[in-house]
C-alpha cells in the first residue's frame, strides 16, 4: 500500500486563492490540487470534492481521531482541511450526508499504479497488458480494497469514473492522465464488485460526450441497459486440465471436426416463463448432452460478446471482453465451457473484429476523436452494416483486438475463434464503388493494416493457447488464408468453404430433372478443395432473410424433400473437409430461423424429422470412427474420383483414404428419384465393402433400398481399376461403403 501512497504529489506553494471545483474539474490534472499537499514545512492541506454533503471530517488512520474538519471554500464548494503533521498523513474521510455517516479512503491519497513498462506493454500486440492493466481491476492494498480504473483516451481533456458509488457525478472521481501512453487511471477505494460504472469524458474540443462503457469491461448490464459491471479478479476454479492437455497434442487437420453452430438465444426458450432465454448453466445441462448425443465434436457460438441489439445476433458487439449478460454471469459462462470440455466437446466463439456499432456508449468517437475508427468514412465506415471499421494501422487498436482474441482463449479456455467477415477487412474496396475507397500506399486495394493485424492475431493465438484453432469466414480467393504466416499466409487454421456451400446448395435446390445440366456444381469444388484447410459450412446465413430453411430449399413432394436433404447431408459428410451445421438443420426445421423464438422441437414427433436427426447422429459417428473420412480431409492424396462425369444419371462417386492406405471409404450419391440397379463402380482393392451409411434406410424415413449391408468387390475391371462393385443405388440417396478387412487377405 505504502508504495502507492508515497510521492504522489510533490510539495508546492499554497495558491493565493483556492481553486474552484470548476477549475479542478477542467484542469485534466486533479492530483495537482486534490488529496494531501504540504503547503509549508509541517503544514498539510487535504482537499476534496464531495458534493451534496452535510459535513466532511479528516480522521487519522484509525478512523476515529479527528485531524481537522473540512471547510467549504467559495465560490463553489471545494473542501479543504488544514493541520500540522510531521510526515505525510495517512487519513480517512468521514462523510455525513442526509443523516448517514460513512468513513472512506481518499482516492487522491494514492500514487500512480501503472508503471512505465505497463504503458509500453499496453501498445504491444504480443502482450496481455490490455486486459490485465486496462479496465477495472479489483485490488486489495493491505486491507484497503477497491478498484483501479484505467482507460485509453489520449485526446480527452478530462475523464471521470461515474457509477453507483458516486451518484454518477463526474466531479467526484476525476482521473489522472498518464501522458506517456494517453492512459487515464484512478484507484477508487471502498468500491465493491457488481456495481455499475461508465466513463464520463470531455472530448478534445471541450464537449461532454455520452457516457462511455468501459472498452475492457469484463461484464455488462443486461440490454437495453448499457453500463459496465465491476467484477473481482477471475476466480473460476477450472477442472479441465486433462482436456486442455489432450487438446494441445491434437492435430486438428487430421482429426474429425464436426461443428454444431448455435445461437444460444433461440436454440430453446422457456415458454412457460415468458419465453425467456435459457441460462448458461441451463444450456450446460440441456444443450451440451444433446450435442454430445448427436456426435458433434464442437459447438460454435454465434457472438456472445456483449451487444446491445438482439436482432444483430451478436454481430454488432459493444463490450468485446464481456460475455453477454442475457444468459448469466461470466462465471456462468465459464461453467458452460467447462461442462462442454467434461463432455468431450470443444467451444468455438464467433468473433467479430471486422466492425463495431455506432451506439453512443460504445467505441465510436470515444475520446472526442475517431480513436478506434478511421476518421475518413471511405476507410472507417461499413456502408452495408452501418457500422464503423477499426483503424487496424493504429498500434493500440491492433493491441486491443489481438489481446481480445487471446483473452477469450486464455481466460475462458475456448477452443477456437471463427473470425467473421474476413473479406471485409482484407479489401479496401469491399462492397464499395469507384471513388468510395482509398488505395493503399502501393495503389492497391489490400488493407495492409488489417493483414498485419490478422497475421499477428493468429500468431499470438497459436503461440499462447496450444491446441486452439482459428477459422476464417473468407468469401474470396485470397491466397493462403489457412497457411502459416512464415510462408506468406494469413495464419488461420481453417477457412470456411463458401464456394462449396453456394455451388452445392444451388444444385440441390434444382428439380432432379434439371440437375444433369448443373452437374459441375457438384464437381467444381474439388478443383480447389485442398488449396486451404476447409470447413464445409451450412451456417445460419443460409437459413435467414427469406432464404428459407435447408428443408425448404429442397424440391419435390414431401418424400422427395426429405430424401433430398438426407442425400445432401450424406454427400456433405462424405466430402473432404470438416463439417459445420447450424442448429435446426439436424431436425429438418421447416421454417427459416427466427432469433426471437425457439427451434420447433415438436417436429421430432414426426418420424420424418426424427429420421433426419438419427441420420446426423449416424453420420457423425461414421465420420469420427472411420479414419478414411477424416484423416486426410485437407490432403489431395486422400481423395480419388471414381465417377465424376455421369451427369445423365446425376450420380457421383469418389473414394476417401486414411493415413493407412488400406483405410478406404467409397461415397456414392444419386440425386435423382430413380433406383440405379447394378451400377458398377471401379475400386482398387478386392474385399467386402460394408454399407456404413445409407440415407435411404427406413430408420431415417427412407424406402430401405440398398445393398443388404454391403457388397463384395468382383474381379471385374471398371473405370480403370482391377475390381468393381455392382451397386443398388437408392433414389435420392447417398451411400457410404467402407472396406472391411476382417477375414480378408486384401492388399493394395
UniProtKB/TrEMBL annotation:
Q: What is its EC number?
A: 2.4.1.18
Q: Which reaction does it catalyse?
A: Transfers a segment of a (1->4)-alpha-D-glucan chain to a primary hydroxy group in a similar glucan chain
Stretches assigned to the Glycosyl hydrolase family 13 catalytic domain: 261-608
Look up keyword Chaperone and say if it applies. no
UniProt-listed InterPro entries: A-amylase/branching_C, Branching_enzy, GH, GH13_cat_dom, GlgB, GlgB_N, GlgB_N_E_set_prok, Glyco_hydro_13_N
Write down the superkingdom of origin: Bacteria
Query: HAMAP family recorded for this chain?
Result: GlgB
- Quaternary structure note: Monomer.
This chain belongs to the protein called: 1,4-alpha-glucan branching enzyme GlgB
Quick one: which gene encodes this? glgB
Amino acid at each position: 500500500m505504502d508504495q502507492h501512497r508515497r510521492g504522489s504529489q510533490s510539495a508546492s506553494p499554497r495558491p493565493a486563492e483556492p481553486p474552484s471545483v470548476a477549475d479542478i474539474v477542467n484542469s485534466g490534472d486533479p492530483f495537482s490540487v486534490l488529496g494531501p499537499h504540504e503547503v509549508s514545512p509541517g503544514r498539510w492541506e487535504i482537499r476534496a470534492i464531495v458534493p451534496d454533503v452535510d459535513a466532511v471530517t479528516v480522521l487519522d488512520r484509525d478512523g476515529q481521531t479527528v485531524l481537522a474538519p473540512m471547510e467549504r471554500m467559495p465560490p463553489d464548494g471545494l473542501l479543504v482541511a488544514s493541520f500540522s503533521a510531521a510526515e505525510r498523513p495517512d487519513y480517512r474521510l468521514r462523510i455525513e450526508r442526509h443523516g448517514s455517516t460513512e468513513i472512506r479512503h481518499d482516492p487522491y491519497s494514492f500514487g500512480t499504479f501503472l508503471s512505465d513498462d505497463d504503458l509500453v506493454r499496453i501498445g504491444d500486440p504480443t502482450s496481455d497488458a490490455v486486459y490485465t492493466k486496462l479496465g477495472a481491476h479489483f485490488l486489495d492494498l493491505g486491507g484497503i480494497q477497491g478498484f483501479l480504473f484505467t482507460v485509453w483516451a489520449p485526446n480527452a481533456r478530462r475523464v471521470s469514473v461515474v457509477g453507483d458509488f458516486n451518484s454518477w457525478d463526474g466531479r467526484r472521481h476525476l482521473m489522472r492522465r498518464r501522458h506517456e501512453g494517453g492512459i487515464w487511471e484512478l484507484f477508487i477505494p471502498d468500491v465493491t464488485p457488481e456495481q455499475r460504472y461508465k466513463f464520463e469524458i470531455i472530448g478534445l474540443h471541450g464537449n461532454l460526450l455520452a457516457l462511455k462503457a468501459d472498452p475492457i469491461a469484463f461484464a455488462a448490464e443486461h440490454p437495453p441497459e448499457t453500463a459496465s459491471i465491476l467484477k473481482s479478479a477471475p476466480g473460476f476454479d477450472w477442472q479441465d486440465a486433462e482436456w486442455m492437455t489432450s487438446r494441445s497434442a491434437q492435430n486438428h487437420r487430421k482429426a474429425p471436426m464436426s461443428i454444431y453452430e448455435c445461437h444460444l438465444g433461440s436454440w430453446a426458450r422457456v415458454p412457460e416463463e415468458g419465453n425467456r432465454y435459457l441460462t448458461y448453466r441451463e444450456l450446460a445441462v440441456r444443450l451440451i448432452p444433446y450435442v454430445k448425443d448427436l456426435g458433434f465434436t464442437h459447438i460454435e457460438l454465434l457472438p456472445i460478446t456483449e451487444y446491445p441489439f438482439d436482432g444483430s445476433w451478436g454481430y454488432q458487439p459493444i463490450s468485446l471482453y464481456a460475455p453477454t449478460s442475457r444468459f448469466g454471469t461470466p462465471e456462468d459462462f465459464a461453467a458452460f465451457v467447462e461442462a462442454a470440455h467434461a463432455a468431450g466437446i470443444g467451444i468455438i466463439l464467433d468473433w467479430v473484429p471486422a466492425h463495431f456499432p455506432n451506439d453512443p456508449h460504445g467505441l465510436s468517437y470515444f475520446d472526442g476523436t475517431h480513436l478506434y475508427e478511421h476518421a475518413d468514412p471511405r476507410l472507417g465506415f461499413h456502408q452495408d452494416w452501418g457500422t464503423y471499421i477499426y483503424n487496424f494501422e493504429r498500434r493500440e487498436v491492433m493491441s486491443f483486438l489481438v489481446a481480445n482474441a487471446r483473452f477469450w482463449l486464455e481466460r475462458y479456455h475456448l477452443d477456437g475463434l471463427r473470425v467473421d467477415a474476413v473479406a471485409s477487412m482484407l479489401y479496401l474496396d469491399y462492397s464499395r464503388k469507384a471513388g468510395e475507397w482509398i488505395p493503399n500506399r502501393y495503389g492497391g486495394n489490400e488493407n495492409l493494416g488489417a493483414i498485419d493485424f490478422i497475421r499477428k492475431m493468429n500468431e499470438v493465438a497459436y503461440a499462447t493457447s496450444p491446441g486452439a484453432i482459428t477459422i476464417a469466414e473468407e468469401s474470396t480467393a485470397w491466397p493462403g488464408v489457412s497457411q502459416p504466416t512464415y510462408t506468406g499466409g494469413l495464419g488461420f487454421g481453417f477457412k470456411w468453404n463458401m464456394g462449396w456451400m453456394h455451388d452445392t446448395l444451388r444444385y440441390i435446390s434444382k428439380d432432379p430433372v434439371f440437375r444433369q445440366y448443373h452437374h459441375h456444381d457438384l464437381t467444381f469444388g474439388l478443383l480447389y478443395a485442398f488449396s486451404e484447410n476447409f470447413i464445409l459450412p451450412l451456417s445460419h446465413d443460409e437459413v435467414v432473410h427469406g432464404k428459407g430453411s435447408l428443408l425448404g430449399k429442397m424440391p419435390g413432394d414431401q418424400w422427395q424433400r426429405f430424401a433430398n436433404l438426407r442425400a445432401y447431408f450424406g454427400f456433405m459428410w462424405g466430402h473432404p473437409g470438416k463439417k459445420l451445421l447450424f442448429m435446426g438443420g439436424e431436425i429438418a426445421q421447416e421454417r427459416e430461423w427466427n432469433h426471437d423464438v425457439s427451434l420447433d422441437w415438436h417436429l421430432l414427433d414426426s418420424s420424418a424429422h426424427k429420421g433426419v436427426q438419427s441420420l446426423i447422429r449416424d453420420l457423425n459417428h461414421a465420420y469420427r470412427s472411420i479414419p478414411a473420412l477424416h484423416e486426410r480431409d485437407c490432403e489431395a492424396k486422400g481423395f480419388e474420383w471414381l465417377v465424376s462425369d455421369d451427369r445423365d444419371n446425376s450420380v457421383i462417386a469418389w473414394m476417401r483414404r486414411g493415413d493407412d492406405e488400406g483405410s478406404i471409404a467409397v461415397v456414392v450419391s444419386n440425386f435423382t428419384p430413380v433406383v440405379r440397379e447394378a451400377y458398377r463402380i471401379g475400386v482398387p482393392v478386392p474385399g467386402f465393402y460394408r454399407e456404413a451409411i445409407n440415407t435411404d434406410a427406413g430408420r431415417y424415413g427412407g424406402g430401405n433400398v440398398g445393398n443388404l449391408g454391403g457388397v463384395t468387390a468382383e474381379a471385374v475391371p471398371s473405370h480403370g481399376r482391377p475390381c468393381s462393385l455392382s451397386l443398388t443405388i437408392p433414389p435420392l440417396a447417398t451411400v457410404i461403403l467402407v472396406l472391411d478387412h476382417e477375414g480378408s487377405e486384401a492388399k493394395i
